[in-house]
Write a structure and sequence with these properties.
Layout: E1 4-7, E2 10-13, E3 18-24, E4 33-39, E5 46-51, E6 58-60, E7 68-73, E8 78-83, E9 92-99, E10 115-116, E11 120-125
Parallel strand pairs: 2-11
Antiparallel strand pairs: 1-3, 3-8, 4-5, 4-9, 5-6, 7-8, 9-10, 9-11
Length: about 130
């Protein structure tokens, strides 16, 4: 079992930055790939970024490449999402999720993730 708790959301003006954190419980954090997803009002949940279990490889959806950075600290059981140059369309609830790599699906696929946090609200004003 892995429990995930996100923090760091808030209200920011367009062009600003936020850093989200996701703290995980349990001693097996380093075995999981981790991902960030977001869901805007009235829209489906969408993939944002993912990172391998070791942290050596990162992946991003095209709309955030060059602006967002995902990282992890396995000693602290924490994954981060640094978000720069935020845009109003980035307004959403952001979720972190843990992927045990037991399904043969890509890290952008939500079905591959077994554990989810409760989400943190990010609001970007124009």
């Amino acid at each position: 079992q892995v429990q995930l708790v996100e923090s760091g959301g808030g209200l920011v003006q367009a062009g600003g930055s936020l850093r989200l954190s996701c703290a995980a419980s349990g001693r097996t954090f380093s075995r999981y790939a981790m991902g960030w997803f977001r869901q805007a009002p009235g829209k489906e949940r969408e993939y944002v970024a993912a990172i391998s279990s070791s942290g050596s490889t990162t992946y991003y959806t095209d709309s955030v490449k060059g602006r967002f950075t995902i990282s992890r600290d396995n000693a602290k059981n924490t994954v981060y999402l640094q978000m720069n140059s935020l845009k109003p369309e980035g307004t959403a609830v952001y979720y972190c999720a843990a992927n045990p790599l037991t399904l043969r699906v890509g890290l952008s696929v939500a079905d591959g993730y077994s554990y989810w946090g409760q989400g943190t609200q990010v609001t970007v004003s124009s």
